[in-house]
Specification:
The protein is mainly alpha-helical. The chain is built from 23 helices and no strands. The termini are far apart.
Length: 418
Amino acid sequence: MNTDELLESMTTKLDQQIPQGEIIPERIRPVAIMTRERRLIGDLERDFQKVLDTIKYDERVPPMLTRLADMHLREANYGRAIILYEMTLGLDSEQVSSWVNMGLAYLLVGDPKDSISCLGSALAIEPENAIAMVYLAQAQLRMGEYEECNKNLDRALHISPDHPRALLVKGKYFRAIGKTEVAVTWLKRAIQNHPQFLPAMMELGYVYFSLKHHEEAIAILTDALAMDSEQPYALATMGDIHFELHDPETAIYYYDKAISIKFDDPELWIKKGDLHRSRKSYQQASNSYQKAINANPEYVKAWVRNGMVMLLMHDENTALEYLNTALALEPDNAEVAHQRGLIFYSLEKHEDALNDFDKAFSVEPSNPMHLYYRALMLEILGRGDEAKRTWVVAQHLFSEMGDVTKAAECKARINRLT
């Protein structure tokens, strides 16, 4: 097949199989079943890749790379999408939609800093691009840059007063800064102006859930799922609600449905694992946490959860292996260091436990529980003077927090060592 035939064949297949237009983040999903036609596009893409160096200056190449990148983004193949966006922008850096979609891809993989860079490039070319402003605001929200986030949302709403995603992110912004009732107002406005806008309905359902307004949450999420029954995060929130309402069977039903759609999201597996753990079904919980690890081997939370459930199964050595991996992935994670310290404590490795509680306190000096266990280890190791000084500081911190019980316990231990 010559170059013309290859490009023509790819265009035809993409037109038949892959939609064009704006990419909706909530509709990005991994391919569960690879059809024959989709496999054929993959074969053509590999052939295209082989000849790319010889034809890269052909004017038809950048649009083709863009379409392939968009396809991979829609299918949640973020790494491949980003590589292809970089290639096409290397050939034609004026493609605003490619900058925007690459920014979205970085946002979805949890890299807001690179997302901000891409979206800044898009706005440098097209300063009035409202969706680029909204995604930029979303990345800034993720970074905790609340003031800049709000400014960009206001700019987007000045350009497009009823922009549905701008209204949605306004709601998320107000939830993030603790103004939940204001968030509800913005989300209701988004739904009032755009009754079919599922992301706002899903967010409102989550906000109602966070406010313990369970009936309202179930009602809005039921409406959302009636419009699209395969929204994994709406299903997951329904699972969370029923879990909180002590209806584990219904919760599992919703978690399983969510996982069947978004099986590559470790957080969904963790929700299922947490439910099993709450029911003391520890092996089933461990199986779910392992699936979370398989979905994303660098997801620290999954390693920690599996370590903790192994501890509940009295398998301290396996628990320690999980926590070692978690700490290797995130050496400055105070929670992981503390949890590993607890495992060392249970194994009577008191020096190792002391080192971990020290590490945890160095990262999180406002948390007196690290000092509580540090003092305990020092007592066990016979280092009474150091233990006493540590109990004094812990007592002060517990008192500042208003934890009268722990402060009193620290005082009693100080008196015992005096």
